[in-house]
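FOLDING PROBLEM:
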Amino acid sequence: MKTPNFPLRALVCGSTQGIGLAIAQQLAKDGYSIVLTSRSEDKLQNALTTLKTDPGQTHHYFVSDFTDPAGLKIAIDNFIKLNGPVHVLINNTGGPKSGPIVDAEISEFLAAFNQHLICNHILMQAVVPGMKTAGYGRIINIISTSVKQPLPNLGVSNTIRGAVANWSKTLANELGGFGITVNNVLPGATNTQRLTEIAKVKADKTGESIAEILAEMGQESPMKRIAEPEEVAAAVAFLASPAASYINGINVPVDGGRTKSL
């Protein structure tokens, strides 16, 4: 197990709320210097104030819009040029809207493909040279348990998440020899704004309350509850650490056992 003898910097995408913010906060507690990115500069500035900062840690942010891959490339390239390498990349992007796949527009697939796979790829290409130089790197993709078991009424998301999972496995095979691991964390139903939005869509159709639907989602897990973002962040923090040096190319569900496949 290689323990790096230099400060580690982690870039966390979608890091102003929900799972992304919880990951950034946990990694900051673990001693990483954090780079936050999302669309809203106001929210980024607020999130920055929630990060634990000890001597030797320096936290940054940059504004990015994952509907604009070309702009994202400019933003990440400029950041690295000015501030130096990133050793841990957390790809985390809000999912496409819910709905059956048979009704999905072609534009929905193209938009989701750009926001997830293409933007992940742009960030990976920007950070991997620095990881190779350091001989240490972690790329962790926050996707979904749908890569193991497609979820009802999430047609576009199921499709795109599967593409990201296979991109990740291919990348793990290519980068492992450089001390860089690539893994996926698959959250189940988690207490986030995204889950509330999904519940609201169902509530509008069924007449149930959002609270009732969230409770029903929790009952689908053997744990009889939905997850908190901090529980997903804990799994990410382990995979980002030197202790996970020989874990590569896997999917880690954080769903309380809901997924029926191994």
Observations:
- The chain has two domains: 9-188+229-254, 190-226.
